[in-house]
Amino acid sequence: MAGSLAFLSVDYGASAACPLALAVYGDAESDAGIDFRPTTDAVTVTNSFKMVLDKGVVLDGIVMWTSGVSRPHGSLMYKCPTGDVTGDELAACTVWQGVVYSADDKGNIALLAAEGTDAPQSLIFPDLGPSLQMSSAFGPNGFSKLPWDVFILKGCQE
User: Fold this and answer.
1) Which of left, alpha, beta for 4 (phi over 0: left; psi -120 to 50: alpha)?
2) Chain centroid to CA 59: how far?
3) 2: which of 31, 34, 130, 138 is 20 to 30 A away, CA to CA?
4) Cα–Cα distance between 98 and 69 in angstroms, integer?
5) Range 78-86 contact pairs with CB under 8 angstroms and sequence separation of 24 or more
């Protein structure tokens, strides 16, 4: 997968679990991948990742827990400006937002936990494909294969 990090395959029957901060996920529909990274300097961000799509398109992803009714709110951004960014600029480059769910190998659904936990068997990004199809990242100058909402654990980064 272009742009992804190297990873080791994971055999959950014989090896230790992978920490979520180093997990690598893949989508069977489009060969899209997700590489988690340790979140280092953000107080409110609980998870950081890159989503790699076809044609080398990379989306930056973060997860922050909401207040009130606690939920892991995920955002995927494409070509966001850096530095001191306004809310309007951030909204313009956000291509997907929603609650991120996880599932274990028995199909039990849960909310995505913070990065200090073991990586779940799969991740669910509700309505990911339709949201990305409406984004500036999709089309002749961007990616062409829409990912499905479910990503399966493929390995752990070295």
Assistant:
1) beta
2) 9
3) 130
4) 14
5) 78/135, 78/136, 78/137, 79/136, 79/137
CA distance linking residue 135 with residue 9, whole number of Å:
32
Q: Which amino acid is at 16?
A: A
C-alpha 126/C-alpha 131 separation (Å) is 9
User: Which tokens sit at 75?
Assistant: 């955002």
Nearest-Å Rg of the Cα atoms of the chain is: 15
For tokens 């002749």, the residue is 140
143 neighbors 21 (Cβ within 8 angstroms): no
With cut-offs at 50, 70 and 90, classify the pLDDT of residue 41.
Answer: low
Instruction: Tell me the C-alpha distance between 127 and 44, whole Å.
Output: 24
- What element of type H or E holds 91? helix 87-93
Torsion, CA 70, CA 76, CA 81, CA 83, rounded to 10: 40
The pTM for the full model equals 0.84
CB 143 within 8 A of CB 9: no
Token pair 């979140």 is found at: 39
